[in-house]
Amino acid sequence: MFRPGTLTRLAPLLLEHGMLSFSSPDVLKFLGHRINVSGQIPGNYEGELTTDFKSRASGDRVKYRIDGNSLKGYGKGSTPVGDLFRVETLTQNVEVFKTYRPNEGGRRTT
Predict the structure, then answer these.
(1) Distance of CA 34 to CAs 28, 38, 41, 46, 98, Å?
(2) How far apart are CA 22 and CA 38, in angstroms?
(3) What confidence score (pLDDT) does residue 64 get?
(4) Would residue 38 count as lying in a domain?
(5) What are the residue ranges of helices labelled H in 1-110?
(6) Integer Cα distance of 106 and 88 in angstroms
(7) 1 lies in a domain?
(8) Where are the extended beta strands (E) located within 15-105?
(9) pTM score, two decimals?
């Protein structure tokens, strides 16, 4: 949340940052995919990552999609308290996300 009127100035900068600063390995890692120790995408990876920017009457947004999951950021609008910038994650393919927890016997597994 930002002070009223601040998002008008900051939203283009935030969206530009989202388009230019996050590499494909960054987005893949955030959306649950394994990245090599060197920070690169594994050579046998066959999925498709898309990044797009759209301008609409309601405002601009940046969106990343992969394997049915997506991440997007956009200016939500003004409230009496302040301006809202919203980041949403949609997970339709949860199998890519690993959960690490101990077995009842105490050993860690995936």
Answers:
(1) 7, 11, 8, 12, 10
(2) 16
(3) 92
(4) yes
(5) 6-21, 24-30
(6) 35
(7) no
(8) 49-56, 59-66, 69-78, 83-90, 101-102
(9) 0.72
Those residues with Cβ within 8 angstroms of residue 58's Cβ, 6 or more apart along the chain or in another chain = 77
Look at residues 88, 44, 46 and name the one whose alpha carbon lies nearest to residue 67. 46
Structure tokens at 102: 């101990």
Q: How far apart are CA 22 and CA 66, in angstroms?
A: 15
- How many distinct structural domains can be found in the chain? 1
pLDDT (tens digit per residue) in 8-39:
888 888 888 888 888 888 888 888 888 888 88
Does a structural domain hold residue 61? yes
Residue 86 maps to a domain: yes
Q: Which two tokens stand for residue 35?
A: 């990245």
Task: Please give the single-letter amino acid code of residue 6.
Answer: T
Structural domain boundaries, residue 65: 6-109
